[in-house]
Structures are given as C-alpha cells and as structure tokens.
Amino acid sequence: LSTEGRVKLCQIDLNLILKYVDIINQEYKTDVPYSFNGKEANVGSVPLRYILHKYYKIPLGKKVFTVETPKQILDSKNSEVLKRFIAGLFDGDGYVQYYHCKGSDILDHVNFCISTSSHLLVKQAIDILDKLGIKCSSLIRGDDNRMTLQTSGFENSFKFYREIIPYIFHKKRKETADKIFKGEEFVEKLTIP
C-alpha cells in the first residue's frame, strides 16, 4: 500500500490472493484482476481502497496528509504484525540511502528511509520501530514538505535490514539492501584483523 493513492496487494501464496480476490468480488460485486508470475501474486485495484477504508479507516482518494496507522496495528503486541506493517510502508514509500567515504570505495553509512506527506504516519512508524528496538529520526523536506523517517546509525540500519527487509516484496530495494549487507565491502568492514 502506497500512501500516495496507489493500492497493490502482494503475496507469495497464490491461494491467499485468490481468497482475497473472492472476498473483494463478493463484497463489491466486481471482478478484480490479479496476476501471478510463479513467485508472487499481485492485486492492484480500486476496490481494495474501499476495503481498506471500511475496515481500517484509511482515507479514500489522495488525502495523503491524513493517512495514519490503523488502530489495530498501533495496539498490536505482535512483533510479526508490526514488522510486516513497516515492510509494507517501505515497499510503498521507502528507499535505501548509502554513502561512501569521500574519494574511496569504503562504505561510510547506510540509512533505510520511508518518505510520505503524512507526518503522523511517519511519527507512528518511528514509534513502531522503537517498539522493535530500531531507533529512527525524522526530517521534513523543504521542497515538498514530505516527512522522511530514517534509521539512526549503522547499528539501527543493520537491525532494520535483519528485522524488516525479509518481509518486503520490492525486488530492487531488497537487492540494494542485500548488496550492501551481504556484499564483500560490508564483510570487510566488520572483519577484525
């Protein structure tokens, strides 16, 4: 789910997607399309917005400034639910930011970021990550007033990688994170002579 008005439901289990599609079709008397590429099933459709609105009070339309975390998520004590929620935010509005030391190939720092127009959503995501032991900070971009969550320091970026990245579906973001944390450069940085 992207807070910018796009809805896309991703799932590895095709049977689960088919159950979702059946519920949506029955509830809204529609015929929702889906795709399956052998690894991942996707549903991207307007009716999903209505279901998210009805059951989770996510606003309809491009009301991105008012999007907030559903109460069911905020009140959850289940770390798997919290991790998957953050992974969904990262899939929709996240990116990996990394820098090398000037004039070298040595990795200087890595941040996982989630950027959206809803400041409340970012603050709530920071609170959820805090519950998971991952410290983050926020900043407001001057050009478009979007708020960006970013992991604080290398240790918290590594925790985000370990705890959240396994749940994401966005292939390119996952590959970037894996390249950083599973790459030779990362291993060399942590090797003690």
User: Main sheet?
Assistant: 4 strands, antiparallel
Number of strands: 7
Strand neighbour order, sheet with most strands: 4-5-7-6
Unreliable stretches (pLDDT < 50, length at least 5) are 1-5
Tell me the Rg in angstroms. Answer: 18 Å
Shape: globular
Calculate the terminal CA-CA distance, rounded to whole Å: 45 Å
- Average the pLDDT over all residues and give the rounded result: 81
Classify the secondary structure makeup into a structural class: alpha+beta
Question: Strand fraction band?
Answer: 15-25%
Helix content percent band:
40-55%
Number of alpha- plus pi-helical segments: 8
Provide the succession of SSEs. Answer: EHEEHHHEEHEEHHH
Which terms would index this structure?
single chain; 193 residues; alpha+beta; 8 helices; 18% strand
